[in-house]
Amino acid sequence: MSETELVDEITLSRQKTGKVLPRGEFFKQKKHFLCVNVWIKNSDNLYLMQKRVMSKKVDPGLWSVCGGVVESGETSLKAALRETEEEIGLRLSIEDMCLLYQNPEPDPWGGMVDVWLAKADVEIENLQIQPREVEEVRWFSLPELHDFIRLGKVSPHILFALSKF
Questions:
Q1: What is the sign, positive or negative, of the torsion defined by CA atoms of 69, 42, 145, 135?
Q2: What is the C-alpha to C-alpha distance for residues 134 and 109, in angstroms, rounded to an integer?
Q3: Predicted confidence (pLDDT) per residue in 21-51, tens digit
Q4: Beta strand pairing call for 111-119 and 33-41
Q5: pLDDT for 5-21, tens place per residue?
Q6: What band does 151 get if pLDDT is binned at 50, 70 and 90?
Q7: 1 lies in a domain?
Q8: Domain presence at residue 155
Q9: Are 119 and 96 in contact (CB under 8 A)?
């Protein structure tokens, strides 16, 4: 998504206000907007994580999940599917997706985050990562993920979702 793409302003109760702003304006004006995080779990109970490139403004070099801002007129589900395909080349189906949690508190940038859980068995070598966003992708067990959290290698902005697993 570029800075010129449009995003719907929402209230803390997730209702659209009718205002549409360029993405960058939300951060400047401290308005609320809808975001998605997509946690992907395979049949071995491993979670697919991606390491963000160092050039990212938010959480450079940290492990995170697929996600981003919901574009104007887009649903949370459609954004989750789009972001996953854009970032790692994984085309999920609607049937793979489950809305796990809607965070009632905005993130530091004003985003109200919907957390999706997808069930997918995919080989890392079959993914097509977006080199402008993602440096590396790998599967983590929950204990491995907790070790990386303790070492400060995981984005703190996705940790609220872990309690839902």
A1: negative
A2: 21
A3: 888 777 778 889 999 999 999 999 999 999 9
A4: parallel
A5: 899 999 999 999 999 98
A6: very high
A7: no
A8: yes
A9: yes
Alpha carbon 91 to its chain's center: 15
Q: Rounded to whole angstroms, how far apart are CA atoms 42 and 122?
A: 8
Q: Which residue has the tokens 């887009």?
A: 74
89 falls within a domain: yes
Beta strands in the chain (DSSP E): 6-10, 16-22, 33-41, 47-52, 63-64, 66-69, 97-102, 111-119, 134-140
**pTM for the structure as a whole:** 0.93
The count of structural domains within the chain is 1
Q: Over range 66-82, report the average pLDDT.
A: 97
* Contact of 92 with 13, CB cutoff 8 Å: no
Residues of the domain holding 56: 6-164
Q: Tell me, what amino acid is at 85?
A: E
Residues 6+ apart with CB under 8 A from 28: none
CATH number at residue 110: 3.90.79.10
Q: Is residue 10 part of a domain?
A: yes
Taking the alpha carbons at both ends of the chain, their separation in whole angstroms is 29
CB–CB of 70/79 below 8 Å?
yes
Residue-by-residue DSSP string for 48-73: EEEEEPTT-SSSTT-EE-EEEEPPTT
